[in-house]
Specification:
Layout lengths: L1 E5 L8 H14 L4 E5 L15 E3 L12 H13 L4 E5 L5 H10 L2 H7 L3 E9 L4 H14 L4 E7 L6 E2 L2 E2 L4 H6 L3 E7 L7 H10 L4 H5 L8 H20 L3
Length: 243
C-alpha cells in the first residue's frame, strides 16, 4: 500500500483539492483507496460525498500536538486494509506535529518494514503564497530526504515564477530534484468560463465523475464539456507522473 499524504503548513493553497484529485484518479483507474481526513475542525476531504473518506482526528483539540495512539490507529489500519492507497489529508495545523511524530516513532521505517511506501504531496502556489510554499517544500525535503515528493504547482491565482524564473529553473528544484517523484500543474483558468466551472465544482464538493454523469448530473452540457477537458488534462498529468 502507498501512504499518500498531502502535507503543507500554509492554509488555502489547494491542499484538499489535490488530495481529492488524486483520490478520483486512483478510483477511475480501478485502484482501491481509503481516504482519511485528519482535521475535524475544518473538514474538507471528508465532505466529498463521491469519495470513500473517513474522519480520523489525530491531534489534541485546539493544538497541533499529535495524539500518538490516534496516529498509531492509522498505521494499524494498514495491516488489514484491503486497499492500494491510503490517501491522507493532513490539516495545516497538524503538519509540524505530524513530522515530529514520524521522526520520534520511526514511522516511515516501520511502514517500509510492513511492505508499504510513504509518499508526500506538497502544494506550491503562485502570487503572494509562492515564497512561503517554496520554503515549506524545502523544509519537507530537508526533514525527509528518503521520502518521494510529488509537487503540485497551483497557478490558480498567479504564475509559479520567482524573480522571473519558473519552478524548474529555481535553486530549490535543482537542490531537491532527486526527491521529486513527479510534478503536476494546476493551470490558471479563464475565470469567466473554465475557471468559474472548476471553482463551482470545488465549492460543491463534487467529483468530476459526479459532474460528468449523464444520468445524474445537473450541470448544463457546455459546462460539462469544459469540466471534461479540465479533468482530462489533470488526469493525464497524474498518469504521466506515475502516481
Amino acid at each position: 500500500m502507498i501512504f499518500d499524504i498531502t502535507i503543507t503548513e500554509k492554509g488555502g493553497v489547494g491542499k484538499t483539492v489535490v488530495t481529492a484529485l488524486r483520490a478520483q484518479h486512483y478510483l477511475e483507474r480501478g485502484s482501491r483507496i481509503i481516504g482519511i481526513d485528519t482535521d475535524p475542525s475544518n473538514p474538507g476531504f471528508s465532505t466529498y460525498t463521491g469519495l470513500p473518506v473517513q474522519i480520523l482526528p489525530i491531534c489534541e483539540e485546539g493544538t497541533n500536538k499529535i495524539v500518538p495512539r490516534k496516529f498509531d490507529e492509522l498505521v494499524s489500519m494498514s495491516e488489514t486494509a484491503d486497499a492500494d492507497y491510503m490517501v491522507v489529508d493532513v490539516g495545516t495545523s497538524n503538519m509540524l506535529g505530524l513530522l515530529d511524530y514520524l521522526t520520534e516513532n520511526s514511522t516511515v521505517e516501520l511502514l517500509g518494514e510492513m511492505g508499504h511506501t510513504v509518499r508526500f504531496h506538497s502544494v506550491i502556489r503562485g502570487a503572494s503564497d509562492l515564497k512561503e510554499t517554496l520554503g515549506q517544500f524545502a523544509t519537507l525535503c530537508e526533514a525527509w530526504p528518503e521520502v518521494a515528493k510529488v509537487v503540485w504547482l497551483n497557478s490558480q491565482i498567479g504564475p509559479i515564477q520567482y524573480e522571473g524564473k519558473s519552478f524548474e529553473d529555481l535553486p530549490v528544484y535543482s537542490r531537491y530534484i532527486g526527491q521529486i517523484h513527479g510534478i503536476i500543474k494546476i493551470p490558471f483558468l479563464d475565470q469567466t468560463t473554465f475557471g468559474a466551472d472548476f471553482a463551482r465544482l470545488l465549492t460543491r464538493r463534487e467529483t468530476f465523475a459526479q459532474a460528468l454523469d449523464l444520468q445524474a448530473s445537473t450541470w448544463p452540457i457546455v459546462q460539462r464539456h469544459r469540466l471534461k477537458k479540465i479533468w482530462k488534462d489533470l488526469n493525464d498529468q497524474m498518469s504521466q507522473a506515475n502516481l
